[in-house]
Amino acid sequence: MRLGTGVGTYRERTVFTAKDVMTLRQRTGAGMMESKRALEENKGDMEKSIEYLRTKGIAKAEKRIGKQTSEGTVASYIHHNGKVGVMVEVNCETDFVARTDDFKQLVKYIAEHIAAAAPVAVDKDQVPQDRVERERRIFVEQVKESGKPEHLIEKIVTGKIEAYYKDVALVHQAWIREPKKTIDDLIKEASAKLGENIQVRRFVRFQMGEE
Questions:
Q1: Residue of 29, 74, 76, 142 with fewest CB within 10 Å of its CB?
Q2: Tens of pLDDT, residues 98-109
Q3: Which of helix, strand or coil describes residue 33?
Q4: 3-state secondary structure of 83
């Protein structure tokens, strides 16, 4: 099923699919008409539509952020080679949701991802500052060596630091199973589906030979 909106010639119309509407609903918790309207307003662009809904205060997963998450589970994952292990605590609002298959599947996906992607912190504000400063020094030298103008160095380095966070902060990493999504996207989809605030509180990752 394809949905067309707008006026003028066919080429000028915004076209998106019913599946796009469903995806937007899953990622934000918004209603069908709200999701359709967001896609219409943003010419079918999924990320802009999510931002639109957040700006309007319609993205329900965003509204749930800040609600107390005193329930949840601690789960473990051991990679098949026996050399990498993970323990992760994922919180939600009620024990009922913590016992659902959807929540358990989410936690399993997160633990598997941590084993494979080796993040160093849950979010970027938890990345050790000494690591960030070390990377900043390296980036500054790299940019200087490339011959970029002095007035552009700070802007370029800032961009590189943001990219670094996407490499090492769990919620900003691209999900290993579906790289078009981040772990944050995955959590928000589950939050919208289950109707509760869901957060990764902490994790530890063990690898043979590493301290």
A1: 76
A2: 999 999 999 999
A3: helix
A4: coil
